[in-house]
Design a protein that fits this description.
CATH topology: Porin
Shape: globular
Largest sheet: 12 strands, antiparallel
Radius of gyration: 26 Å
Order of helices and strands: HEEEEEEEEEEEE
CATH architecture: Beta Barrel
Structural class: mainly beta
Distance between the termini: 66 Å
Number of strands: 12
Number of helices: 1
Strand content: over 45%
Strand order of the largest sheet: 6-5-4-3-2-1-12-11-10-9-8-7
């Protein structure tokens, strides 16, 4: 009798445990981290920046993703720079490159379609990458530029601390040499830049962005 009772208890416990396990929701696998993207362009996104010259003059501007347009057979994402001199730009992403197709200054109706298509950055970025472009800009200005990815650096600015890839640019534009350094953070985009044209030096920093975790 004792053995039979013990057996019944064991069976009952097994049934309860089985039922409990069946009712327990299956655990979801951990979410996969999205692939690296150093130039995200989600619809409607914006980034706010502040620029300061070495003389102390400052200005602010906002970059917004405004839509999508076809340029011939190529689908592009349109971006507008809201500033004293508003600018519209056309980009596409694919094959490890963010391509810059066209630029228009909206106030004075001046534009340039880059031929060949201009490389904004490689995507994803990696230390040692380099690329060059030579062509015509707005007002038919000659541009010859070379970019080199230096590596990841800590960028400390007012809006936070970022691990960002540093890219050094050497640009000859209309006969003037311009040195530029850009820092791009994964899943955010451009967080800081410096420009040195000899006569003018400026620093631009990211102030806020629309998809920032609050």
């Amino acid at each position: 009798m004792l053995k039979r009772t013990t057996a019944l208890v064991v069976v009952t416990i097994a049934l309860v445990a089985g039922t409990s396990a069946a009712q327990r929701p299956a655990q979801k696998p951990p979410a996969k981290e999205p692939p690296p993207d150093y130039c995200p362009l989600p619809a409607g996104a914006w980034w706010k920046y502040k620029s300061t010259t070495d003389a102390g003059a400052s200005s602010e501007f906002t970059i917004k993703v405004t839509g999508e347009e076809k340029l011939g057979d190529v689908g592009t994402t349109t971006v507008e720079v809201e500033s004293v001199f508003p600018i519209k730009e056309w980009y596409s992403k694919g094959n490890g490159v963010v391509s810059w197709h066209q630029e228009a200054y909206l106030k004075n109706n001046q534009s340039a379609a880059f031929s060949p298509v201009r490389t904004l950055i490689k995507n994803p970025l990696a230390k040692g990458q380099t690329w060059s472009w030579k062509g015509k800009g707005v007002l038919n200005v000659d541009i010859d530029e070379t970019a080199t990815v230096i590596g990841v650096e800590d960028v400390v600015i007012g809006s936070g601390t970022f691990k960002a890839f540093r890219i050094d640019w050497t640009v000859m534009q209309g006969g003037t040499k311009v040195l530029k350094t850009y820092w791009y953070a994964n899943w955010i985009g451009l967080v800081k830049s410096t420009t040195d044209s000899g006569s003018v030096k400026s620093t631009t920093e990211l102030v806020d962005w629309s998809f920032r975790k609050r």
